[in-house]
């Protein structure tokens, strides 16, 4: 068995690097007379950055003795900061890890710490980890989480999360953390298997990310005692303060469902927080259209606009993240020995880079995107190959308990009072048919959902947190037609109304992810959002609504593979039935 090299440079490489300092070898590139951020000194410095292949050989006031063949670029009027790091990525919100990375890199975000949940659910169990490892060949930098739970109620969760699989993921040097820990209530209540996995992560010097929205000070302290090291779920400045008081690392969130960053900064300033550069920031896997305004560059701009010192704002997206995840020996700062991952700015107050370098390769140069060679092999992501049909008899909605939408993602139970045996529900109210059906066609659960739409014929979606099929709408025939079209395109989201096909977003990668560039996906998702709003969808993020209808880390009622599930009581109210 081949032992993976855990450090990117062999001994021969290191000797080449030192020979450049000695003058017997020349660097490839020198960025000369530039202004660069020295994170150790917390100040802007004037100097020269020597680069050889993928590494910074030197950053300081000196020029190399040997410049034979060296490209020297004068950058007196430029400002250079480390490449931005997105520390909490869900790379399957219709986009995929590669398409998100390609898009984000053009605005300076070149390092990603990513959720592995969909890889576990969509790949053969033994192939998920090898699939992830191919991203090490990318000019961008991809790190990963090791999930310890599914954040839903799977029929066979024990098949996905085993001692062997968890340890194999945690042993990989590209895996930086365990979590996010949506099953923290089980940990608190005595699940010792889960606790043992948390301890396995800590023993390997990995971080453990919590999921603690609204948690009390006592709960936060308890989670810290059990091994949780950080959390990104603060909704108020007081939430941030409580976590900091208990020693947790805090990542401030600004996402499509929680655009909280400006508010959090203002509330922390009101509490006289003296420094922000130990805090981190994340966009928390937002829906595609959220990224029209950028990725981590968007968050840095918000922080600067809210009066955070620009150096601290840059650190919140670079150095603070690298230090927390023990990556600062490799990246997150501009210093000798680090990866040559840099953003070149025209103004330190504007974090959108003119040029982007990652691992010594230009990703964007003088405003022009540069072609990249790396493309992942998607063959291990199982296509959604539906070999079964839905019939009118499958659409039987006699459940006395329905799901009422409170907002994009929070749902509560309600008593169904209308006749749901009809072929089409009235269009003067907001109740729709809701069906979750197994992607293999083996089981189903049927109920009603209130608050999703007034005038929607049928939506079929293979995009969900489990990869099973969601059907929502007023008309059983429109639902069947939408399902048929979704099946024809190999998975995706399809919208029909009154016998007309309105829109579709094909998701050929497992029925969950698109293979298209994010720029195109933004347009497709924007149209979906517009059509749903016109049909009466009252909220602002239908992608997250579809994703979280099956997710049991949020209150109060969910449709899952086991049936309609009461999150608070941890009880299946109505089980799924076989088709």
Descriptive notes:
- The protein is 26% helix and 26% strand.
- By secondary structure, the protein is α/β, with parallel strands linked by helices.
- The protein folds into two domains: 82-332, TIM Barrel, CATH 3.20.20; 392-578, no CATH class.
- Strands 1, 2, 3, 4, 5, 14, 15, 16 and 17 form a nine-stranded mixed sheet that branches. Strands 18, 19, 20, 21, 22, 23, 24, 25 and 29 form a nine-stranded mixed sheet that branches. Strands 6-7-8-9-10 form a five-stranded parallel sheet.
- The model has no long low-confidence stretch (mean pLDDT 95).
- One of its GO terms (molecular function) is adenine deaminase activity.
Task: Please give a quick description of this structure.
The protein is built from 17 helices and 29 strands.
The SS-based structural class is alpha/beta
What is the 3D shape? Answer: globular
| Ends apart, CA distance between termini | 45 Å
Helix content: 25-40%
Task: Show unreliable segments.
Answer: none
Text of the CATH class of the largest domain? Alpha Beta
CATH-derived topology of the largest domain:
TIM Barrel
Number of strands: 29
Number of domains: 2
* Share of β-strand residues: 25-35%
Q: What is the CATH superfamily classification of the largest domain?
A: Metal-dependent hydrolases
At CATH's second level, what is the architecture of the largest domain? Alpha-Beta Barrel
What oligomeric state is this? single chain
Rg for CA atoms: 25 Å
Question: Biggest sheet, open or closed, and with what strands and sense?
Answer: 9 strands, mixed
Number of helices: 17
Mean pLDDT: 95
Catalytic activity: adenine + H2O + H(+) = hypoxanthine + NH4(+)
Keywords: Hydrolase
Domain Amidohydrolase-related: 79-363
GO molecular function: adenine deaminase activity
